[in-house]
């Protein structure tokens, strides 16, 4: 176990960590000699997590914080002050708790804190390393750790406790093992330690609310798509009736709402439903039950290989959940953003949901979060998802899907967009999918090939369906002409002769003719003119 400190004048920073292996010593609780100068310490939680829904994460952190005031008589209270987007270990006088998708030398969690010249703590940050451990909350742990179990230990550091050498104490320096829950209950050594830092002022202790769920009965089954009605009650010895403040959450669908009763349509699966409420003293009371929602008919499940947006606008998985992409690229599961997922494509392959994120990696839905599976499209190229060879935007399609699943379009001003983001500064008037390569006809009137990360100038043969047939005439038998360089010719307002949407060197006329590999225009002067590549010359 590693601890260190360094001076940040005029303040000091100290870090304590919780290891994932067993360590044993022979002395009792220890303190770091610094305490808060107040009996209420506000903290903020960043709800983003790979493994947990925002509501489950915040609830677990609150449970960990509550232990120190609910299980001891110490004159100190950790008070949840709301959400934050902070994720930096920094002195900003804001106590922040957040997850990081990294591994840190076997540490499950770490606590950083600062104190001033008078010895009082002024800031603390808690970080949990979910890149190295699978975090759970409530129940169902397998080969991972319960967040609330780790949070109790780290909040002990935040209040001024160091590691204890008493085996089984919450503040011992290592967890007893995976899926441990013993640290959620303070031992006498932990209680003695926290009460030494914040001596009790009374022998009267605030008690947590009592919560009951009256409907539905535990284990009840429901059909997919049906509404489920929940009802419950909450009473508190100090605050009285708190039923109207009950918060309802599902282990699958997240937050359901507030109140003594509510009705909701749940996704298919086995839900752990939690009703919880916090009293004015910050103590949490809760009750749980499970309900089962049957899966939708197999006929409703999307076909294997379904891809948004290439082949469909929504995907129905085998739990009956409906997946869509919002206009801001949020990944929606039954209309709610799924564990803060963002991306440009959703793929249903081999009974799993995959999303191509903004980092161009594919991420698999685990049921509660996202797991990175790499840059290769899962299952390889899916038949019918890629555009046909020779497809050209905007001539015969509005978008192109390449063999990696990327969606190519032309945006405002001619920006070349790959999955909605400009591709390496590309600009042009056409996109061509030919021989498994993306080509763009640039604003410099040249063809450019996409390399996977940038553009290279190229000479293109074959074209995107080729130039217009010899003898094509605008407006007689075509609305536009494509010449052998790929340029698109049209007639604009007032007879302006447009090449790729811009007037070609002041050209005006009533007809455009493509003949013998040459562009001709019948001018407003009643004569035919020939395009030289940069100007007009009279034609014989």
Question: How is this structure best described in words?
Answer:
The chain has about 550 residues and is mostly beta strands. The chain has five domains: about 5-195, Collagenase (Catalytic Domain); about 210-295, Sandwich (Immunoglobulin-like); about 300-375, Thrombin, subunit H (Beta Barrel); about 390-460, no CATH class; about 475-540, no CATH class. The strands form eight sheets. Strands 1, 2, 3, 4, 5, 6, 7 and 8 form an eight-stranded mixed β-sheet that branches. Strands 29, 30, 31, 32, 33, 34, 35 and 36 form an eight-stranded antiparallel β-sheet that branches. Strands 37, 38, 39, 40, 41, 42, 43 and 44 form an eight-stranded antiparallel β-sheet that branches. A hairpin with a 2-residue loop joins strand 40 (about 495-500) and strand 41.
Please give a quick description of this structure:
The chain is mainly beta and about 550 residues long.
Discrete helix count: 3
Strand content: 35-45%
CATH architecture verdict of the largest domain = 3-Layer(aba) Sandwich
Tell me the domain tally. Answer: 5
Give the strand tally: 44
Radius of gyration (CA) equals 32 Å
Contiguous uncertain segments of 5+ residues:
1-14, 19-27, 461-465
CATH topology (fold) name of the largest domain: Collagenase (Catalytic Domain)
Shape: elongated
Instruction: Kindly state the percentage of residues in helix.
Output: under 10%
CA distance, first residue to last residue:
90 Å
**Given the helix and strand composition, which structural class is it?**
mainly beta
**Name of the CATH class of the largest domain:** Alpha Beta
Q: At the fourth CATH level, what is the homologous superfamily of the largest domain?
A: Collagenase (Catalytic Domain)
Q: If you average the pLDDT, what whole number results?
A: 82
Strand count, sense and closure of the main sheet?
8 strands, mixed
């Amino acid at each position: 176990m590693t601890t260190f400190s360094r001076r940040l004048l005029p303040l000091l920073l100290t870090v304590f960590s919780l290891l994932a292996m067993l360590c044993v010593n022979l002395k009792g609780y220890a303190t770091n000699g610094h305490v808060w100068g107040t009996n209420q310490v506000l903290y903020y939680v960043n709800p983003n997590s790979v493994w947990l829904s925002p509501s489950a994460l915040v609830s677990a952190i609150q449970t960990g914080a509550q232990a120190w005031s609910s299980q001891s008589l110490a004159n100190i209270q950790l008070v949840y002050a709301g959400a934050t987007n902070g994720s930096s270990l920094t002195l900003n006088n804001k106590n922040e708790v957040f997850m990081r998708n990294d591994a840190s030398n076997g540490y499950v969690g770490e606590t950083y804190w600062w104190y001033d010249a008078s010895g009082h703590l002024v800031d603390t940050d808690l970080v949990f390393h979910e890149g190295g451990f699978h975090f759970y909350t409530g129940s169902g742990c397998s080969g991972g750790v319960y967040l609330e179990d780790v949070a109790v230990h780290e909040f002990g550091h935040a209040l001024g406790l160091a590691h204890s050498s008493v085996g089984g104490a919450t503040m011992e320096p290592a967890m007893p093992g995976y899926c441990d829950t013993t640290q959620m209950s303070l031992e006498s050594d932990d209680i003695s330690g926290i009460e030494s830092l914040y001596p009790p002022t009374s022998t009267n202790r605030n008690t947590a609310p009592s919560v009951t769920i009256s409907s539905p009965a535990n284990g009840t089954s429901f059909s997919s798509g049906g509404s489920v009605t929940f009802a419950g009650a909450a009473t508190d010895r100090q605050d009285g009736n708190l039923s109207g403040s009950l918060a309802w959450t599902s282990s699958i669908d997240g937050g359901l709402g507030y109140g003594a009763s509510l009705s909701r349509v749940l996704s298919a699966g086995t839900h752990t439903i939690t009703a919880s409420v916090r009293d004015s003293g910050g103590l949490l009371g809760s009750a749980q039950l499970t309900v089962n929602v049957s899966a939708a008919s197999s006929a409703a499940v999307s076909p294997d290989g379904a891809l948004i947006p290439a082949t469909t606008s929504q995907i129905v998985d085998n739990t009956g959940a409906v997946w869509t992409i919002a206009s801001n690229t949020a990944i929606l599961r039954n209309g709610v953003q799924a564990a803060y997922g963002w991306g440009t494509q959703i793929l249903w392959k081999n009974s799993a949901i995959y999303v191509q994120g903004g980092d161009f990696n594919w991420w698999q839905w685990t049921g509660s979060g996202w797991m990175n599976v790499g840059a290769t499209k899962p299952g390889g190229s899916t038949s019918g998802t890629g555009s046909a060879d020779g497809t050209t935007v905007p001539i015969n399609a509005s978008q192109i899907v390449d063999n990696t699943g990327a969606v190519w379009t032309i945006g405002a001003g001619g920006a070349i967009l790959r999955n909605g983001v400009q591709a390496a500064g590309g600009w042009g008037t056409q996109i061509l999918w030919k021989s498994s390569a993306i080509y763009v006809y640039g604003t410099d009137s040249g063809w450019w090939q996409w390399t996977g990360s940038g553009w290279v100038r190229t000479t293109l043969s074959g074209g995107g369906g080729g130039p217009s047939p010899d003898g094509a005439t605008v407006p007689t038998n075509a609305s536009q002409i494509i010449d052998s360089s790929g340029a698109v010719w049209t007639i604009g307002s007032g007879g302006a002769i447009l090449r790729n949407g811009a007037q070609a060197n002041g050209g005006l006329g009533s007809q455009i003719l493509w003949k013998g590999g040459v562009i001709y225009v019948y001018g407003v002067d009643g004569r035919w003119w020939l395009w030289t590549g940069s100007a007009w010359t009279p034609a014989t």
